[in-house]
Amino acid sequence: MKTKQLEKGISQLSEEGVAQLFIQNPGNRKIIGTVGELQFEVIQFRLEHEYGAKCAFIPLKFWKAFWITCSDKKMLETFMHRKAYAIVHDKEGNPVFLAESEWNITLSKNDFPDIEFHTISE
Q1: What distance in Å separates the CA atoms of residue 14 and residue 23, rounded to the nearest whole number?
Q2: Which residue range is the domain that position 40 belongs to?
Q3: Separation of alpha carbons 11 and 20, rounded Å
Q4: Domain containing 109 — which CATH number?
Q5: DSSP for the chain?
């Protein structure tokens, strides 16, 4: 029962723009992205008081999210396979690369020049 309330709350809060919801597979792991630490406290408070669902957040080592596209589907698949630990999908099913650092994204851009990295969903 609480799982449904948590799912509903996270879904509605992401629709409001409070946070971005990402899904990591396999396992259907949910990752919430925000622009700051305070937003996690707001989300946690709202989930508990508006939806009756307590939760705890575990910080991840990612720095920034980049939506990825490429006209060469094989190249995109290769990138996603090599970076599988950092690939998630947004609510629309679009692939997103979670970069660990600025150095990490620069290296990825150099190694895969045909991949386009977008800071917003298009």
Answers
A1: 13
A2: 2-51
A3: 9
A4: 3.30.70.3280
A5: -HHHHHHHHHHHHHHHTS-EEEEETTTTEEEEE-SSHHHHHHHHHHHHHHH---------S--EEEEEE-S-HHHHHHHHHHTGGGEEE-TT--EEEEESSHHHHHHHHHH-TT-EEESS--
Q: Are residues 46 and 83 in the same domain?
A: no
Which pLDDT tens digit goes with each residue over 14-47?
Answer: 888 888 999 998 878 889 998 888 888 999 999 9
57 part of a folded domain: no
Q: Does the reported pTM lie above 0.70?
A: yes
Nearest CA-CA partner of 31 in 94, 98, 120: 98
